[in-house]
Amino acid sequence: MRTVLFAAFAVILLNELPADVKAASEGVELDHQEWTFDGPFGGFDRQQLQRGFQVYREVCSSCHGLDYIAFRNLEAIGYSEDQTKVLASEYLIEDCCDDQGDIFDRPAIPADGIPNPYPNEQFARASNNGSLPPDLSLITKARANGPDYIYNLILAYEDPPADMEEEIMFGMYYNTVFDGNQIAMAQQLFDELIEYSDGTVATNEQMAKDVTAFLHWAAEPKLEVRKQTGVRVLLFTLVFTVLAYFLKRRIWAGLKH
Ligand code: HEC
Q1: How many domains are there within the chain?
Q2: What residue's CA is closest to ligand 1, atom 33?
Q3: Is residue 209 domain-resident?
């Protein structure tokens, strides 16, 4: 029983290690951020997720899809049913088929997925100098230290050092975090690029943090439930261990040493 308990605590502690410790093997040192979803009691800040969705919608969605998220999923980040209907209706979806058998466009409904900006991969590549902007639904899970990595990546644009200037290929940009330091995505965030509907000042860092938190929610919408279950299981194990201990004392009490 105690072994189980120690193992459980060890797993939690490992999860708590600062990113730069875990990232050491990845080569780049990431600036670790405090996330509301860190730690065994962490959760999402709905206001932040909505700001993050706004950044996604107004900036990232022109190149990146969010294939696994339907409009109605956005109710989980605090939008009402009516709001998701309005949000959805601003997009057009290709549907099949009308009475003549032709594909036609219709406004999206909450059950539809957020439409991909490109009709197919070839089109996406052709529009981005041969590179494919990946779907962002699971991106925070697909990279080591996902949230810290993405936050750092989208802010890590600077002028290339003199010895690299020549090496930067056409359509590529110098980025200190991306593997190889050349990325096909130009810098996307600039201070006050968007105007947040909740009045928060849209600095570069604020937008990077909000959109990353939103993408982490997209990748793990059940994070809060998972953590709550974990804490409950631990509490149960703790109570059970104490009970088992007293039971053992009681059973052995009658025995002479
Ligand atoms: C103009 C198109 C465009 C926009 C807008 C854009 N991206 Fe990208 N993004 C790309 C392309 C192209 C790549 C592929 C880069 C490569 O492989 O070199 C990419 C790659 C990425 C990656 C993957 C990096 C990796 O480790 O492979 C992330 C994460 C990302 N973008 C996040 C964002 C976020 C967040 C936004 C909005 C703030 C955004 N992008 C806006 C074009 C775009």
Answers
A1: 1
A2: 60
A3: yes
Ligand 1 pocket: which residues have CB below 6 Å?
Answer: 55, 59-60, 62-64, 128, 131, 133-134, 139, 143, 150, 153-154, 183-185, 188-189, 211
What's the pTM? Answer: 0.87
E strands along the chain, which residues? 66-70, 92-95, 104-107, 113-114, 173-174, 182-183
For residue range 89-138, list pLDDT tens digits in order. Answer: 999 998 999 999 999 999 999 999 999 999 999 999 999 999 999 999 99
Length of the chain in residues, anyone? 257
Nearest CA to ligand 1 atom 24: 178
20 pLDDT tier (thresholds 50, 70, 90): very low
The CATH number of residue 18's host domain is: 1.10.760.10
Spacing, Cα 251 to ligand 1 middle (Å): 64
Q: Which residues contact 42 (CB under 8 A, 6 or more apart)?
A: 35, 36, 223, 227
Res 81 pLDDT > 60:
yes
Band (64; pLDDT cuts 50, 70, 90): very high
Domain assignment present for residue 127? The answer is no
CA of residue 188 to ligand 1 center, whole Å: 9
Q: Which domain holds residue 232?
A: 2-65+134-156+189-253
Q: Is residue 240 part of a domain?
A: yes
Nearest-CA residue for atom 6 of ligand 1:
60
Quick check: 40 and 47 in contact, CB under 8 A? no
In this prediction, residue 25 has a pLDDT band, given cuts at 50, 70 and 90, of: very low
